[in-house]
Amino acid sequence: MFSFDFDLEDDPLEPTKGVAAALPAPQSDPVVELSLSHLLDSLPSRISYSPVSIPLSSGKIAALSRRDLFDARFQLISEGTDDTDGAPGLDFLDAPSDLVPGVYEGGLKTWECSLDLVGYLDSLPDSSETRLPGKRILEVGCGTGIPSVFLLSRLFCEQSNVDCHVHLQDYNSSVLELITFPNIVLAWYMSPSSAEYRASEDDVEYPPPDPAVAGELSITPALKNAFTASISKLGIGLAFFSGSWDSLTLRLRTEGTKYDVVLTSETIYRTDSLPALIQLLYQACIDEAALCLVAAKVLYFGVGGGVSEFARTLQSNALECCGRAETVWERKVGVGREIMRIHWV
Known about the structure:
It is found in: Cytoplasm; Nucleus. This is protein-histidine N-methyltransferase. Keywords: Cytoplasm, Methyltransferase, Nucleus, S-adenosyl-L-methionine, Transferase. The protein has a domain at 30-41 and 105-201 and 221-344: Vaccinia Virus protein VP39 (Rossmann fold, 3-Layer(aba) Sandwich). The protein is built from 11 helices and 13 strands. The protein has helices spanning 36-42, 69-79, 90-94, 112-123, 146-155, 173-189, 195-200, 221-234, 245-255, 274-284, 307-314, and strands at residues 2-3, 32-34, 46-55, 61-67, 98-99, 136-140, 164-170, 215-218, 236-242, 261-265, 291-297, 323-331, 337-344. A hairpin with a 5-residue loop joins strand 3 and strand 4 (61-67).
């Protein structure tokens, strides 16, 4: 187990201080697709949430609602859920920065580089490459899913005749159930797409649709139905996958599934998992024109992972695929962070 030693949930960001030991690669768990109906059934009767404030290059602040960890912890306690399937339980909710390869990969925590990725996505000029309608988007190692939630918050504000698919992968199914999917529901509620539903529910007291304000949202059958109907009307297809990168790569290859936009953040900390990650990114990209972005710290102290090692592995002849990492954004103050665009060769 190791920790990156900073906490976005309660305190200002702190630089990484170190890790306990080098980590073995996790086992290759089979990929499992979690249905929308299953995730809706996994929601509690109420969700407590707080805002995540993300500074943008324009000088504005993007606010997104994120489910509180203590609320997810309360759900596990009230449901009597334990770690029997290897999913993160109370221990990891109490210490979301502690990673155990093959058991829990840190998805309960919002990591710094996911916020960097939001800022970069927001800064991209409007073009056929960056317009969301008609795109197929995959976030690998999504955790709290903040980059995808940001993109979905935009889609929830648009009316388009062109479908868009947003797929999310995390090693742990419980992360998708407890945090990722609730965050997406919150993004929908905070958007104009939920206005008709909010106006029709006079007998339920709902919080104002302001992602900059903390609150509690009642999850009623009517809300679930409205959410499902709304994303269908908007042409938004959601899919959620748990399991290892190797298993998802095999599934995508078998099904011939490709994506226009592939995102990942804080996933290159372990050197021996880099080949599996790179193979997945390559397999997922529709072609060399796909927008493939990797956000990461320059160095993950104690485990050897980081930008340089990722770039070396990406160019290695030992892989079936080969690519080049272009730095498109960087922060040099404190613990360095970068966003790389991957070009496949």
